[in-house]
Amino acid sequence: MKNAIQWFEIPVNDLERAKQFYSQLLAIEMQDFKMEQLQMVLFPVEEGTVGGALCYHSEFYKPSHEGPLVYLNANPDMSPALERLEGLGGQLIQPKTLIREDLGYMALIQDTEGNRVALMSQS
Fold it and tell me: Is residue 76, in this structure, part of any structural domain at all?
């Protein structure tokens, strides 16, 4: 098995608000992807790596602080993202913390939808 994670989905109530939050927080471009009843915004991904999306469906997705915790790539340094966080409507739950020298740093945040999400970076 190459990766333990194949795909992730972050539940949202307001897809456009969440798209603005994550694209500005991580300084990335995200792509809309709509199906019949499911609406998604895709995180950028290189071929052969793990991808994911913000997802809205009125019955299937409920933002939460409970359940699995997704660690988003904020390399090379999450500090700029954390500086933008509150201005984008997010909240800091746990500040940037060294995990271990060879693993880098992590921080816990709350997004605009009420989800608990982690950021991870090498510095």
Answer: yes
Is the residue at 1 inside a domain? no
> pLDDT per residue over 66-103, tens digit each?
999 999 999 999 999 999 999 999 999 999 999 999 99
Contacts of 93 (CB under 8 A, 6+ apart): 107, 108, 109, 110, 116
Whole-structure pTM over 0.90, yes or no? yes
Beta carbons within 10 angstroms of residue 42's beta carbon: 15
For residue 29, give the CATH number of its domain.
Answer: 3.10.180.10
Domain that holds residue 46: 7-121
- CA dist., res. 62 & res. 9, Å (int): 11
Distance CA 47, CA 104 (A): 24
Q: Mind listing the pLDDT tens digit for each residue in 8-29?
A: 999 999 999 999 999 999 999 9
Higher pLDDT, 42 or 35: 42
